[in-house]
Design brief:
It is built from three helices and five strands. The chain is α/β, with parallel strands linked by helices and 102 residues long. 41% of the residues lie in helices and 24% in strands. Strand 3, helix 2 and strand 4 form a beta-alpha-beta unit. The protein has a five-stranded mixed sheet. It has a single domain, classed as Transcription Regulator spoIIAA.
Length: 102
């Protein structure tokens, strides 16, 4: 469901890349939330959510995004490879003004 990878960026600073592979409905989010938050706390690195293989997100996923942004700071959190229909959900919720969504 989620794969974690600690990768260095151009400046050799580590980023925690979280690649999601399924629909992020409420049940799936509740299943992974504690593990995800613990991984974010352990890494102490900027976090990137890769949604390349995700075509649906529930409000539970938006809540996880808020928790991660609060944990690492909004400037250290981004969501990438977002499908257009998922991007609409972020925009309707106003997240596009708070965190980087591409």
């Amino acid at each position: 469901m989620v794969q974690y990878n600690l990768e260095s960026n151009i400046t050799n600073e580590p980023n925690l890349i979280c690649a999601f592979t399924e629909r992020l409905d409420t049940a799936n989010c509740l299943e992974i939330e504690d593990e995800l938050i613990n991984k974010v706390r352990e890494s102490k690195a900027p976090v990137i959510f890769n949604l390349q293989d995700v075509d649906y997100v529930a409000s539970a996923f938006l809540r996880m995004c808020l928790k991660v942004a609060k944990e690492v700071g909004p400037e250290n959190f981004s969501v990438i490879n977002v499908h257009p229909n998922v991007k609409k959900v972020f925009k309707i919720a106003g997240f596009d003004k708070q965190i980087s969504i591409t």
